[in-house]
Amino acid sequence: MKIKKIVALALSLALVLGLYNPVNSKAADSSLSLKGQVYTIAATTTSTTIQWPNVVGASQYLISYADISKLSKDANGKYIGEYTNVTVGAETTKYKIKGLGKASYYVTVAPIDASGLTGESGSTFVTPKKTKIVGILAEPAGATAGDYSVKTGWNYPLAEGIQVQLVSAKGKVVQSKTLTDAEAESMNDTYTFYGVKRSSAYYVRVRGYNTFTGGDKIGQKYYGPWSTASKTAIFVPQPTLTTQNKDVKKSSVKMKWKKVKGAVSYTVYGGKTKDSMKKKKTVKKTTYTIKGINTSGSATTGGYYIAIVANVKVKGKKKSSDKNCYVHAYTYVY
Q: Which of 239, 235, 244 is nearest to 266 (CA)?
Protein backbone atom coordinates (compact mmCIF):
# COMPACT_ATOMS: atom_id res chain seq x y z
CA MET A 1 0.00 0.00 0.00
CA LYS A 2 1.31 3.48 -0.85
CA ILE A 3 2.59 5.62 2.01
CA LYS A 4 0.18 8.45 1.24
CA LYS A 5 -2.70 5.98 1.43
CA ILE A 6 -1.52 4.60 4.74
CA VAL A 7 -1.33 8.11 6.20
CA ALA A 8 -4.69 9.13 4.75
CA LEU A 9 -6.50 6.00 5.86
CA ALA A 10 -4.90 6.06 9.30
CA LEU A 11 -5.98 9.67 9.72
CA SER A 12 -9.47 8.79 8.51
CA LEU A 13 -9.80 5.97 11.01
CA ALA A 14 -8.31 8.02 13.84
CA LEU A 15 -10.70 10.89 13.33
CA VAL A 16 -13.73 8.67 12.86
CA LEU A 17 -12.90 6.80 16.05
CA GLY A 18 -12.31 10.08 17.84
CA LEU A 19 -8.67 9.28 18.65
CA TYR A 20 -7.63 12.72 17.46
CA ASN A 21 -9.64 15.85 17.98
CA PRO A 22 -8.78 19.16 16.28
CA VAL A 23 -10.70 20.96 19.04
CA ASN A 24 -8.59 21.53 22.16
CA SER A 25 -10.67 19.94 24.89
CA LYS A 26 -10.84 21.81 28.20
CA ALA A 27 -12.33 18.82 29.98
CA ALA A 28 -10.82 15.49 29.03
CA ASP A 29 -12.83 13.73 31.73
CA SER A 30 -16.09 15.46 30.86
CA SER A 31 -19.18 13.26 30.47
CA LEU A 32 -20.07 15.35 27.44
CA SER A 33 -19.27 13.18 24.42
CA LEU A 34 -20.21 12.74 20.77
CA LYS A 35 -17.58 10.12 20.04
CA GLY A 36 -18.79 7.89 17.22
CA GLN A 37 -22.11 9.76 17.02
CA VAL A 38 -21.62 12.27 14.20
CA TYR A 39 -23.17 11.09 10.94
CA THR A 40 -23.25 12.14 7.30
CA ILE A 41 -26.89 12.15 6.18
CA ALA A 42 -26.73 14.15 2.90
CA ALA A 43 -24.01 15.33 0.55
CA THR A 44 -23.19 16.89 -2.82
CA THR A 45 -19.79 17.64 -4.34
CA THR A 46 -19.77 21.02 -2.55
CA SER A 47 -21.88 20.52 0.58
CA THR A 48 -22.46 18.05 3.40
CA THR A 49 -25.23 17.71 5.97
CA ILE A 50 -24.21 16.19 9.28
CA GLN A 51 -26.35 15.11 12.24
CA TRP A 52 -25.72 14.12 15.86
CA PRO A 53 -27.86 13.23 18.89
CA ASN A 54 -28.69 15.76 21.58
CA VAL A 55 -26.18 15.63 24.45
CA VAL A 56 -27.61 16.18 27.92
CA GLY A 57 -25.84 19.13 29.52
CA ALA A 58 -24.67 20.71 26.27
CA SER A 59 -25.51 24.38 25.84
CA GLN A 60 -23.95 24.62 22.38
CA TYR A 61 -21.97 22.65 19.80
CA LEU A 62 -18.73 23.55 18.07
CA ILE A 63 -18.49 22.34 14.46
CA SER A 64 -15.00 22.26 12.93
CA TYR A 65 -14.06 21.15 9.42
CA ALA A 66 -10.95 21.21 7.22
CA ASP A 67 -9.46 19.87 4.01
CA ILE A 68 -7.68 16.73 5.20
CA SER A 69 -4.66 17.35 2.95
CA LYS A 70 -3.92 20.57 4.85
CA LEU A 71 -3.68 18.92 8.29
CA SER A 72 -0.38 18.05 9.93
CA LYS A 73 0.70 16.10 13.00
CA ASP A 74 2.06 17.89 16.08
CA ALA A 75 4.56 16.63 18.68
CA ASN A 76 1.75 15.14 20.77
CA GLY A 77 0.45 13.04 17.92
CA LYS A 78 -2.57 15.26 17.25
CA TYR A 79 -3.49 16.46 13.81
CA ILE A 80 -3.55 20.22 13.57
CA GLY A 81 -4.21 22.79 10.90
CA GLU A 82 -6.51 25.57 9.90
CA TYR A 83 -10.13 24.63 10.60
CA THR A 84 -13.29 26.53 9.90
CA ASN A 85 -15.33 26.74 13.10
CA VAL A 86 -19.06 27.25 13.53
CA THR A 87 -20.94 27.39 16.85
CA VAL A 88 -24.63 26.43 17.03
CA GLY A 89 -27.12 26.34 19.89
CA ALA A 90 -28.13 23.33 21.99
CA GLU A 91 -31.38 22.95 20.05
CA THR A 92 -29.44 22.29 16.81
CA THR A 93 -28.49 18.69 16.03
CA LYS A 94 -28.21 18.94 12.25
CA TYR A 95 -26.09 21.28 10.16
CA LYS A 96 -25.41 21.77 6.43
CA ILE A 97 -21.87 22.80 5.54
CA LYS A 98 -21.87 24.69 2.24
CA GLY A 99 -19.24 25.98 -0.14
CA LEU A 100 -16.84 23.08 0.22
CA GLY A 101 -14.08 22.82 -2.36
CA LYS A 102 -13.27 19.82 -4.50
CA ALA A 103 -11.44 18.08 -1.66
CA SER A 104 -11.90 15.49 1.08
CA TYR A 105 -12.94 16.95 4.44
CA TYR A 106 -13.13 15.83 8.03
CA VAL A 107 -15.80 17.29 10.24
CA THR A 108 -15.91 17.21 14.03
CA VAL A 109 -18.68 18.26 16.39
CA ALA A 110 -17.89 18.93 20.08
CA PRO A 111 -20.49 19.56 22.83
CA ILE A 112 -19.86 22.51 25.17
CA ASP A 113 -21.60 22.95 28.52
CA ALA A 114 -22.80 26.15 30.19
CA SER A 115 -19.48 26.65 32.02
CA GLY A 116 -17.56 26.58 28.73
CA LEU A 117 -16.09 23.10 29.14
CA THR A 118 -15.67 21.28 25.83
CA GLY A 119 -16.49 17.58 25.73
CA GLU A 120 -15.26 14.83 23.47
CA SER A 121 -16.00 15.39 19.80
CA GLY A 122 -17.29 13.00 17.19
CA SER A 123 -16.20 13.11 13.57
CA THR A 124 -17.07 12.02 10.06
CA PHE A 125 -15.41 11.84 6.65
CA VAL A 126 -17.15 13.75 3.84
CA THR A 127 -17.04 14.81 0.20
CA PRO A 128 -14.37 12.83 -1.70
CA LYS A 129 -11.90 15.09 -3.43
CA LYS A 130 -11.70 15.54 -7.17
CA THR A 131 -9.34 12.97 -8.60
CA LYS A 132 -7.17 13.07 -11.71
CA ILE A 133 -6.44 10.68 -14.54
CA VAL A 134 -2.68 10.19 -14.66
CA GLY A 135 -2.41 8.17 -17.85
CA ILE A 136 -4.11 6.09 -20.50
CA LEU A 137 -2.70 3.24 -22.57
CA ALA A 138 -4.30 1.35 -25.45
CA GLU A 139 -3.28 -1.98 -26.94
CA PRO A 140 -4.69 -2.26 -30.48
CA ALA A 141 -4.83 -5.45 -32.47
CA GLY A 142 -3.58 -3.77 -35.66
CA ALA A 143 -4.35 -1.19 -38.31
CA THR A 144 -6.94 -3.24 -40.13
CA ALA A 145 -8.67 -5.46 -37.56
CA GLY A 146 -9.60 -5.92 -33.92
CA ASP A 147 -10.74 -3.78 -31.01
CA TYR A 148 -8.70 -2.15 -28.27
CA SER A 149 -8.09 -2.79 -24.62
CA VAL A 150 -7.72 0.56 -22.84
CA LYS A 151 -5.96 0.81 -19.48
CA THR A 152 -6.14 3.93 -17.34
CA GLY A 153 -4.71 5.06 -14.02
CA TRP A 154 -5.67 7.76 -11.51
CA ASN A 155 -4.43 9.41 -8.35
CA TYR A 156 -5.86 8.33 -5.00
CA PRO A 157 -9.11 10.21 -4.20
CA LEU A 158 -9.11 9.70 -0.38
CA ALA A 159 -12.40 7.83 -0.41
CA GLU A 160 -13.96 4.45 0.34
CA GLY A 161 -13.92 3.54 -3.34
CA ILE A 162 -14.03 4.84 -6.88
CA GLN A 163 -16.18 4.70 -10.00
CA VAL A 164 -14.40 4.71 -13.37
CA GLN A 165 -16.13 5.13 -16.73
CA LEU A 166 -15.25 5.04 -20.41
CA VAL A 167 -17.25 7.73 -22.23
CA SER A 168 -17.57 8.33 -25.98
CA ALA A 169 -16.62 11.64 -27.56
CA LYS A 170 -20.33 12.48 -27.68
CA GLY A 171 -20.82 11.86 -23.96
CA LYS A 172 -22.32 8.37 -23.96
CA VAL A 173 -21.16 6.07 -21.15
CA VAL A 174 -19.79 2.99 -22.90
CA GLN A 175 -18.44 1.05 -19.91
CA SER A 176 -18.60 1.66 -16.15
CA LYS A 177 -17.01 -0.04 -13.15
CA THR A 178 -17.29 0.60 -9.38
CA LEU A 179 -14.42 -0.55 -7.17
CA THR A 180 -13.85 -0.51 -3.43
CA ASP A 181 -10.64 1.09 -2.22
CA ALA A 182 -9.19 -2.38 -1.58
CA GLU A 183 -10.06 -3.54 -5.10
CA ALA A 184 -8.57 -0.40 -6.64
CA GLU A 185 -5.47 -0.81 -4.49
CA SER A 186 -5.03 -4.41 -5.64
CA MET A 187 -5.01 -3.09 -9.22
CA ASN A 188 -2.54 -0.30 -8.37
CA ASP A 189 -5.23 2.32 -9.01
CA THR A 190 -5.74 1.24 -12.61
CA TYR A 191 -8.51 -0.38 -14.60
CA THR A 192 -8.62 -1.92 -18.08
CA PHE A 193 -11.62 -1.67 -20.41
CA TYR A 194 -11.75 -4.51 -22.92
CA GLY A 195 -13.43 -4.71 -26.32
CA VAL A 196 -13.25 -0.95 -26.97
CA LYS A 197 -14.55 -0.22 -30.47
CA ARG A 198 -12.37 1.62 -32.96
CA SER A 199 -15.28 3.66 -34.29
CA SER A 200 -15.14 6.50 -31.73
CA ALA A 201 -12.82 8.62 -29.63
CA TYR A 202 -13.27 8.29 -25.86
CA TYR A 203 -12.33 9.82 -22.55
CA VAL A 204 -12.03 8.23 -19.12
CA ARG A 205 -13.42 9.79 -15.95
CA VAL A 206 -13.12 8.82 -12.29
CA ARG A 207 -14.81 9.92 -9.08
CA GLY A 208 -14.48 8.83 -5.47
CA TYR A 209 -17.35 7.78 -3.23
CA ASN A 210 -18.16 7.41 0.46
CA THR A 211 -21.30 6.05 2.14
CA PHE A 212 -23.87 7.79 4.29
CA THR A 213 -23.41 6.91 7.96
CA GLY A 214 -26.81 8.03 9.15
CA GLY A 215 -30.30 9.11 8.09
CA ASP A 216 -32.63 7.46 5.61
CA LYS A 217 -29.82 6.77 3.12
CA ILE A 218 -27.47 5.04 5.55
CA GLY A 219 -25.11 2.71 3.68
CA GLN A 220 -25.81 4.28 0.28
CA LYS A 221 -23.00 5.86 -1.76
CA TYR A 222 -22.45 9.54 -2.36
CA TYR A 223 -19.92 10.78 -4.87
CA GLY A 224 -17.25 13.40 -5.29
CA PRO A 225 -16.82 15.37 -8.55
CA TRP A 226 -15.80 13.70 -11.80
CA SER A 227 -12.24 14.11 -13.02
CA THR A 228 -11.82 16.47 -15.97
CA ALA A 229 -11.33 15.30 -19.54
CA SER A 230 -7.67 16.33 -19.71
CA LYS A 231 -5.46 15.20 -22.58
CA THR A 232 -4.13 12.38 -20.43
CA ALA A 233 -7.72 11.10 -20.08
CA ILE A 234 -8.57 11.07 -23.80
CA PHE A 235 -8.07 8.01 -25.99
CA VAL A 236 -8.14 8.35 -29.78
CA PRO A 237 -8.18 5.14 -31.83
CA GLN A 238 -6.48 4.97 -35.19
CA PRO A 239 -8.93 4.59 -38.05
CA THR A 240 -9.53 1.08 -39.37
CA LEU A 241 -7.89 0.91 -42.80
CA THR A 242 -9.94 -0.57 -45.63
CA THR A 243 -7.38 -0.21 -48.45
CA GLN A 244 -7.29 -3.25 -50.77
CA ASN A 245 -4.43 -4.74 -52.81
CA LYS A 246 -5.84 -3.19 -55.95
CA ASP A 247 -5.28 0.25 -54.43
CA VAL A 248 -1.51 -0.31 -54.29
CA LYS A 249 0.33 0.80 -57.45
CA LYS A 250 4.04 1.00 -58.25
CA SER A 251 4.19 4.74 -57.58
CA SER A 252 1.04 5.42 -55.54
CA VAL A 253 -1.26 4.05 -52.85
CA LYS A 254 -4.89 5.03 -52.43
CA MET A 255 -5.67 4.98 -48.72
CA LYS A 256 -9.22 4.46 -47.43
CA TRP A 257 -10.37 4.18 -43.82
CA LYS A 258 -13.45 4.16 -41.62
CA LYS A 259 -14.69 7.33 -39.95
CA VAL A 260 -13.87 7.88 -36.28
CA LYS A 261 -16.68 9.61 -34.36
CA GLY A 262 -15.44 12.87 -32.92
CA ALA A 263 -12.63 13.27 -35.49
CA VAL A 264 -12.31 16.73 -37.06
CA SER A 265 -9.57 15.63 -39.49
CA TYR A 266 -7.11 12.87 -40.35
CA THR A 267 -3.36 13.04 -40.89
CA VAL A 268 -1.59 10.71 -43.34
CA TYR A 269 1.97 9.58 -42.57
CA GLY A 270 4.28 7.66 -44.89
CA GLY A 271 7.89 6.50 -45.33
CA LYS A 272 10.22 3.78 -46.58
CA THR A 273 10.38 2.28 -43.06
CA LYS A 274 7.96 2.28 -40.14
CA ASP A 275 10.39 4.45 -38.18
CA SER A 276 10.85 7.06 -40.91
CA MET A 277 7.20 7.91 -41.60
CA LYS A 278 6.66 11.64 -42.11
CA LYS A 279 3.51 13.73 -42.28
CA LYS A 280 2.12 13.84 -45.82
CA LYS A 281 -1.26 15.54 -45.60
CA THR A 282 -4.10 16.41 -43.20
CA VAL A 283 -7.53 15.87 -44.73
CA LYS A 284 -11.16 15.88 -43.65
CA LYS A 285 -12.26 13.08 -45.95
CA THR A 286 -11.69 9.38 -45.29
CA THR A 287 -9.58 8.77 -48.37
CA TYR A 288 -6.25 10.02 -49.70
CA THR A 289 -3.86 8.98 -52.45
CA ILE A 290 -0.12 9.13 -51.81
CA LYS A 291 1.68 9.72 -55.12
CA GLY A 292 5.26 9.84 -56.30
CA ILE A 293 6.48 6.97 -54.16
CA ASN A 294 8.17 3.63 -54.83
CA THR A 295 6.30 0.60 -53.52
CA SER A 296 8.63 -1.98 -55.06
CA GLY A 297 9.45 -4.65 -52.52
CA SER A 298 8.19 -7.68 -50.64
CA ALA A 299 6.72 -8.53 -47.27
CA THR A 300 10.19 -8.33 -45.73
CA THR A 301 12.06 -5.68 -47.73
CA GLY A 302 11.27 -2.47 -49.59
CA GLY A 303 7.73 -1.25 -50.09
CA TYR A 304 6.15 1.73 -48.32
CA TYR A 305 4.77 2.19 -44.78
CA ILE A 306 1.63 4.22 -44.14
CA ALA A 307 -0.34 5.21 -41.01
CA ILE A 308 -3.53 7.24 -40.64
CA VAL A 309 -4.00 9.36 -37.50
CA ALA A 310 -7.36 10.71 -36.30
CA ASN A 311 -7.42 14.23 -34.86
CA VAL A 312 -10.26 14.82 -32.42
CA LYS A 313 -11.65 17.42 -30.05
CA VAL A 314 -13.17 16.09 -26.82
CA LYS A 315 -14.50 18.42 -24.13
CA GLY A 316 -12.56 21.27 -25.72
CA LYS A 317 -9.27 19.29 -25.67
CA LYS A 318 -7.48 18.48 -28.94
CA LYS A 319 -5.66 15.17 -29.27
CA SER A 320 -4.50 12.78 -31.97
CA SER A 321 -4.07 9.03 -32.07
CA ASP A 322 -0.64 7.44 -32.22
CA LYS A 323 0.78 6.15 -35.47
CA ASN A 324 1.87 2.80 -34.09
CA CYS A 325 -0.68 0.94 -36.26
CA TYR A 326 0.55 1.02 -39.85
CA VAL A 327 0.27 -0.89 -43.13
CA HIS A 328 3.11 -2.07 -45.31
CA ALA A 329 2.15 -1.48 -48.94
CA TYR A 330 4.31 -3.14 -51.60
CA THR A 331 4.26 -4.37 -55.16
CA TYR A 332 6.19 -7.65 -55.38
CA VAL A 333 9.37 -7.58 -57.44
CA TYR A 334 10.69 -10.92 -58.78
A: 239
